[in-house]
Specification:
Elements (H helix, E strand, L loop, with lengths): L1 E6 L8 E6 L7 E10 L2 H7 L16 E8 L11 E4 L2 E3 L5 H4 L11 E2 L19 E5 L4 E2 L6 H4 L5 H11 L7 E5 L3 H12 L3 E6 L5 H7 L3 E4 L3 H6 L4 E6 L14 E9 L12 H6 L2 E4 L5 H14 L5 E4 L4 H9 L6 E5 L6
Parallel strand pairs: 10-11, 10-13, 11-12, 13-14, 14-15, 16-17
Antiparallel strand pairs: 1-2, 3-4, 3-8, 3-17, 4-5, 5-9, 6-7
Helix pairs in contact: 4-5
Length: about 350
């Protein structure tokens, strides 16, 4: 299938129109017209080769909502016209213990990422959702529930599941005390989801200027991390802290905030961190953990939960021709809280 997208040709070039071929349908494939695609901070890292693993041309995008336009002969759960979604992965081995447990993101052979990866069968490059069409095996397609606004649902496929998964893993519910470090694309979803689960939610920020936003999103309070007295008063008051900060930073001020057996979960930063001081970890049996996205079943659970609770990301809709400006604004944290590309703006 001939299609068009926006691609980076190198780490130093802007995204620009790029024509390419999507594969012919296999028996278990679903083909879709992409309606909306969220912009993730990972897209910026990958386009600029910040992690040293980018291959060009690179078509980003792993927060995808679309409409089914064709299905393979063996597809059982989707039909033409269905509204569907695809997140950060499009394949896995399907036979290891993790895949059997519904943890495809932990596949022993490695999941196949939606973009900047290679097809497990052909070895062809995978291209993402900044494009007009997508072809994906059925097992990695998600249903968009009735009542969930498709124009705002795309960020749930990454920002949503990245914060939902640790909340579920650490059994957050009524009475849980949850802290959220950072109030960006990931952080604002963590607040909304934890609040909807019945938790007492505190946003942690270096300044007071996020307080109104934090409360509006469902948080119970703001803790100013630069206020040493407030931080001391908050010691041992959290069961779980979700750290969404995407750059290198110091965890040491936050560890004493955890109660005994509390966990600080990293979901935003990939790479080196400041060296942690182990005293509060040992003396309080506190722990630092990491968490990626969730599996397919958990992501579908998230979408269903959001439809039931009417939880949606805060989005700014843009046209595809505004994507380079959006990258620049995202780098300045000049977005509340997620860009979504209306793919109707991409003509073929």
């Amino acid at each position: 299938m001939k299609t068009i997208g926006y691609a980076a040709q190198s780490a130093g070039t802007a995204l620009a129109p790029f024509e390419f071929e999507r594969r012919d349908l296999r028996p278990n494939d679903v083909a879709m017209e992409i309606l909306y695609c969220g912009i993730c901070h990972t897209d910026l890292h990958q386009v600029r080769n910040d992690w040293g693993r980018s291959n060009y041309p690179l078509v980003p995008g792993h927060e995808i909502v679309g409409r089914v336009i064709d299905v393979g002969s063996d597809v059982a759960h989707y039909k033409v016209g269905d509204t569907v979604a695809v997140g950060c992965m499009v394949d896995s081995c399907q036979h290891c213990d993790q895949c059997h447990h519904g943890e495809e993101q932990m596949c022993r052979e490695g999941m196949t990422q939606t973009y900047n990866d290679v097809d497990r069968i052909t070895g062809d490059r995978t291209y993402g959702g900044y494009s007009k069409h997508l072809v994906v095996r059925e097992e990695f397609v998600l249903g968009v529930p009735d009542g969930l606004d498709a124009s705002r649902a795309a960020p749930l496929l990454c920002a949503g599941i990245t914060t939902y998964s640790p909340l579920r893993t650490w059994n957050v519910g009524p009475g849980s005390r949850v802290g959220v470090i950072g109030l960006g694309g990931l952080g604002h979803m963590a607040v909304k989801l934890a609040a909807a689960m019945g938790a007492d939610v505190t946003v942690m920020s270096r300044t007071e200027d996020k307080e109104a936003d934090a409360l509006a999103l469902g948080a119970d309070r703001l803790l100013v991390s630069s206020n040493s007295e407030a931080m001391e008063e908050a010691q041992s008051s959290f069961d779980l802290i979700i750290d969404t900060v995407p750059v290198k930073h110091d965890l040491n001020p936050y560890l004493p905030l955890l109660d005994i057996d509390g966990t600080l979960v990293l979901v935003g930063q990939v790479g080196p961190l400041e060296e942690p001081i182990t005293v509060p970890m040992i003396m309080g049996r506190r722990r630092i953990a990491g968490s990626p996205i969730g599996g397919i079943d958990e992501t579908q659970e998230l979408l269903n939960f959001c439809a039931k609770k009417n939880i949606l990301p805060e989005c700014e809709m843009i046209g595809i021709d505004e994507v380079n400006e959006a990258f620049e604004r995202m780098e300045r944290a000049d977005v509340r809280y997620r860009f979504v590309i209306d793919m109707a703006s991409l003509s073929q």
